[in-house]
Amino acid sequence: MMVLYAYARLVRGQWVVSWCPFCGKRHWHGAGDPKDPPQLGLGSRQPHCVRQRPHSVYYLTDDPVLQGRRYREDDFERMENS
Ligand SMILES: [Zn+2]
């Protein structure tokens, strides 16, 4: 399974993917409990176009540089060590 990064911006308490790396459309994702930091809502999610594209998964990030890149386990380690 291929996992792609999707850049998301926080808009009115929701994460907005302006350009889905699978379908090119916009998807909105809840950022979770308002008491928690919204960054907890980032991470692996199913895009809303998953019905047309079975098994598609993306990894929400607030880093625009990662948009559309393929997710790799090493990226995790790099983030945690930086
Ligand atoms: Zn999509």
Bound molecules: zinc ion
Mean pLDDT: 87
Count of beta strands: 5
Helix content: 10-25%
Content-based structural category = mainly beta
Q: Which stretches are poorly predicted, pLDDT < 50 over at least 5 residues?
A: none
Spatial order of strands in the largest sheet: 3-2-1-5-4
Instruction: Please give the radius of gyration in angstroms.
Output: 12 Å
Write up this protein.
- This protein is mainly beta and 82 residues long.
- 11% of the residues lie in helices and 30% in strands.
- The chain has one domain.
- The structure holds zinc ion.
- Zinc ion is lined by residues 20, 22-23, 25, 27, 47, 49.
Provide tags for this entry:
82 residues; globular; binds zinc ion; 5-stranded mixed β-sheet; mainly beta
Short description:
By secondary structure, the protein is mainly beta. It is 11% helix and 30% strand.
SSE diagram, text form:
Blueprint: E1 3-11, E2 14-17, E3 27-30, E4 43-45, E5 57-61, H1 73-81
Parallel strand pairs: 1-5
Antiparallel strand pairs: 1-2, 2-3, 4-5
